[in-house]
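Data availability (excerpt). The following record was deposited with the supplementary files.
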Amino acid sequence: GYDDLDWSKYIERNGYRQDYSVSGDAATEKSSMFFSAGFLDEKGYVISSDFRRFTGRANISVTPKKWLKAGFTLAGSHQISNNTTGDAGSATTYVNPFYYARNMSPIYPVFVHDPATGEYVYDENGKKIYDRGSSYARPQNLDRHIVWELEKNMDRTFRNTLQGQAFTDITFLKDFKLSIKGDISLRNSENQDYDNAEIGDGAGNNGRTSRTFYRYKNYTFQQMLTWSKEFGKHNVDVLAGHENYSWNRAYTFVYKTNETFEGVPELVNFTNLTSIDGYQDNYRLESYLSRARYNYDRKYFVEASFRRDGSSRFYPDNRWGNFWSLGGSWSVMKEDFMAPLRDKIQSLKLRASYGEVGNDAGVDYYAYMALYTLNQNANRIAAYKVQNEAKNIKWETTSSFGVAVEGTFFDRLNATVEYFDKRSKDLLFDVNLPLSAGATSTSSAVATITQNIGSVSNRGVELQFDYDVLRKKDLRWNVGLNATFLKNKIVKLPEQNRESGIISGTKKYLEGHGIYDFWLYQYVGVDQMTGRCLYKPNLETYYIGDPVEGKTAFPSQWLVQIGDKYYTTNTTYSERNWSGSAIPDVYGSFTTSLSYKNFDLSAIFTYSIGGKTIDYSYQSLMSVTASPHALHTDLLGSWNGVPSGMTESSPNRINPDGLPVINYELSTYNNATSSRFLQDASYLVIKNISLNYTLPSTVANKLDISALSLNLSVENLATITSLKGMNPQQSFAGTNDNAFVTARVFSVGLNVKL
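Predicted structure:
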């Protein structure tokens, strides 16, 4: 047989990463300096994907007077990345290498073979010829070839950044300090996208290319005045400040087709200008802030803060928002009455806090304005409204309450237990308006306006422990555990959605339920008499038997009666209901570190227990269609006839764990998205294992160096899940698809300090 049927072998490779850095510092009595430079070169594990980065940084600070300190930082970087389409947003496109390779039937070769001998066919240069499907009538992905396209196409991005920061600290009147700081960031990026004229998306245009340019400029100017004072056992510090932030983005896009010379991606090589566009966005934020802290004898602590923020995203009358926080803590072990326990409890602190912060990122930069876009109507320029005026919108607000106890016990155990409750209110939603207000879509009759309506709650408990198991002269062993228990709930929705909720894909947003709660068609099992999937019927919309006012007769061709119960074989007529949540019961990490003399061994594991996910890749591989594609081996256990002794009245006629009949005409119904494809999202990841050796200082001194260490590590060594190949970490929302998975990386590092 052919040895080029596994397409994954030809799109994947062993990637590598090289990371080099050098740094140095110097200091005098009144000045100090630091510099660093770095180079990163990474080849991705998918062909035609790589990343290179050059970085540099320099810091200088001077103290010409005791009351004056000043300095600046300058940093820059240059990045070049070659990309492949491997995100979840393009999970079912031909240019996604994971989708293409995973779904290609393993009977179609990568290269052309002589049908008589089976040998490879070569071109005039002695290279194997890629099989585009037309040579011997490959019915799947005709005139597409992911390996060929990855080699000939280009998706390259250049990024340059330059950041500068200067500061001055002035101390006066003994207890006052004025800090003035300004920074500026300049960034630009250019994306070069090229699709060749021979194979793939660009073939129909005789090649195509585009350029996307972004230019960013932002600055921050900050002035802070602090006052600190000690009065015996009383300690006070107060801060007052002001901050300006300015952000600008310029965008340009050019798209051309019809290349003149093959394989030259430059714009000048293309003759047809298809699209050109450009715009600028601006954003301003001004803030006044204050903070006061007090403690008595390092035993009782109180802190309060207040800030007033003004955002250019809102109408001037609603531009400003006020936000505050209050917190306190108590070091219990400093109390005299705890003295008898200090040999067992080294520290014990109780703390609590409440605060509110604002968020303006939920809306666009001109959210309060009526906006229009230019288009065509009857070959004339026309302006279409795309956004209604919303002068009343304001800041979204998130309030956070937390209470915790933390301490050190038996001089070995550090523990923290914290309860948190975060509530976001005044969330921005698009609310329907009468069409007389003006449609906001050119494709449908819809009129909306943005309003502050929604509210969401996130509350839970977080536990953190670390324990010194062994603590001897040359041998130490520590273990740690982190666990988070989270509950999410929608508190308030727009009035129009309050009763029926908002259905979004596999979720339904309804007051009292969570954002990540699944709302799915209810799967029952496989009918062992027919091999078809059965679902619960939707009896709220349809009636069976005698007519019911306000309901429609259930289509008989999709109705199955077993005993005194009814089922449907079509999800269109199936009941949708709550089907669990993507949020796990508990998630977190645990660690271990072991040191013996000059050796250090450490490991990090991340885990998640509970929660649900839908793996669309698995669902696709379980679906049979008229077009050939790869299938999952689980289909070998599909229904292949009525089991011996099974009758229409058998009590076990429905098999909840069975697999339906393989039939492409029925596949749409048997393999529809439903509760059938929910998977347990629990996982365990060996995130990092690291072994470090530090050269003894006596040896390092003989080599005329300060220190030397050697590190061996592996990242993402293994992921253990309920379904092989599934990546539950891909999305917190509980959906998985054909997308990049985190690479397994083996590293060797050498650190030398001169």
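Summary of structural features: The longest strand covers residues 270-296.
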